[in-house]
């Protein structure tokens, strides 16, 4: 502006884009046949939940039809889904577990 003491300098800060990996929700689906205790056991065993946390998520699935068990990197989510599906199949329960981008 030409007024004394104002040089009108524009300061531009660069903000490097930090790359974060996409995260995936692991979902557990309800069915009419898998025993509640079996679902609780799976949640404790493969997701490291306490009995109380596992029971709560199992009840949510039972009442609402599905619930998010956790959010993980693609590889970890894929492994959890495979572990759950394999364990359920081996015990002849129709339990379904899937993943979707968060
Ligand atoms: N609905 C089942 C029953 O009444 C219990 C159940 C809960 C099944 C959660 C699957 O992901 C599930 N025995």
UniProtKB/TrEMBL annotation:
Keywords: Hydrolase, Protease
Biased composition (Polar residues): 1-12
Domain of life of the native organism: Bacteria
Domain Adaptor protein ClpS core positions: 20-98
Signal peptide stretch: none
An example Gene Ontology molecular-function term: peptidase activity
Keyword hit for Hydrolase: yes
Biological processes annotated in GO: protein catabolic process; proteolysis
Pfam families xref list: ClpS (PF02617)
Sequence segments annotated as region (Disordered): 1-17
Alphabetized Gene3D superfamilies for the sequence: 3.30.1390.10
PANTHER family for this protein: ATP-DEPENDENT CLP PROTEASE ADAPTER PROTEIN CLPS, ATP-DEPENDENT CLP PROTEASE ADAPTER PROTEIN CLPS1, CHLOROPLASTIC
Family affiliation: Belongs to the ClpS family.
Function: Involved in the modulation of the specificity of the ClpAP-mediated ATP-dependent protein degradation.
Assembly and interaction partners: Binds to the N-terminal domain of the chaperone ClpA.
Record's protein name: ATP-dependent Clp protease adapter protein ClpS
């Amino acid at each position: 502006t030409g007024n004394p003491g104002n040089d009108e300098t524009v300061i531009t800060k660069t903000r490097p884009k930090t790359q974060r990996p996409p995260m995936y929700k692991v979902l557990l689906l309800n069915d009419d046949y898998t025993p509640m205790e079996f679902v609780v056991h799976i949640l404790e065993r493969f997701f490291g939940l306490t009995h109380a946390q596992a029971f709560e998520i199992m009840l949510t699935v039972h009442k609402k039809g599905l619930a998010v068990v956790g959010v993980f990197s693609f590889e970890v989510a894929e492994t959890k889904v495979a572990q759950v599906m394999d364990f359920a199949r081996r015990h002849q329960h129709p339990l379904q577990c899937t993943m979707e981008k968060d």
